[in-house]
Amino acid sequence: MNKLSSEEKAYIAGFLDGDGSINAQIIKREDYILKFQIRVSITFFQKTIRHWFLIKLYKKLSYGTLRKRPDGMSEYSIVGINSVENILNLLLPYIELKKPQAKLLLEIIQNMPKVKNDPQAFLKLCEKVDKFTNLNDSKKREINYETVRSTLGL
Questions:
Q1: E strands, 20-72, where?
Q2: Of the listed 14, 17, 18, 118, which one is catalytic?
Q3: Is the pLDDT confidence value at 154 over 90?
Q4: How far apart are the C-alpha atoms of 116 and 123, rounded to whole Å?
């Protein structure tokens, strides 16, 4: 991944700006002390007829998973703190349109270890996650700051 040229990094960042997503979500996890997890991800989308291109991208970045969806689209998803942080740091100088999402996600990632068992700190991080609703024009977020606050009784 570090062997990518500046041109390749710029191209991948442009592809992410156009046909990708930078996201943080709050996921319900009964097995977690605070009952929720913050999931961070980068996803690239492409029609399945061009699935080969996502395979090529996967080979360049060396993280994540590929899948063909039943609706004729393919996804290349990179999930998890370390892999997402590495990719964002690599592409950040070249990202244009989704730079606010990239910077916010890096801020969330940097603060995640500090909130492991601290409900108040976790709740503050959930407020930041909620900002992705507007940044990404999300319509289907079911779990948000209020859900976490009420579940934790804060």
A1: 20-28, 36-47, 65-68
A2: 18
A3: no
A4: 11
* Distance, CA of 93 to CA of 104 (rounded, Å): 14
What are the beta bridge partners of residue 80?
A: none
Q: Which residue type, as a one-letter code, is found at position 138?
A: S
- Predicted local confidence at residue 19, as pLDDT: 94
Give the active site residue among 19, 31, 71, 72: 19
Structure tokens, 67: 């899948």
Q: Give the containing element (helix H, strand E) for 78.
A: strand 73-79
Catalytic residue list contains 153: no
Instruction: For residues 66 and 77, give the distance between their C-alpha atoms in angstroms, rounded to a whole number.
Output: 6
- pTM value > 0.85: yes
Distance CA 36, CA 152 (A): 10
| Tens of pLDDT, residues 93-104 | 999 999 999 999
27 neighbors 39 (Cβ within 8 angstroms):
yes
Q: 7-56: per-residue pLDDT in tens?
A: 999 999 999 999 999 999 999 998 988 999 999 999 999 999 999 999 99
Q: Is residue 118 among the annotated active site residues?
A: no
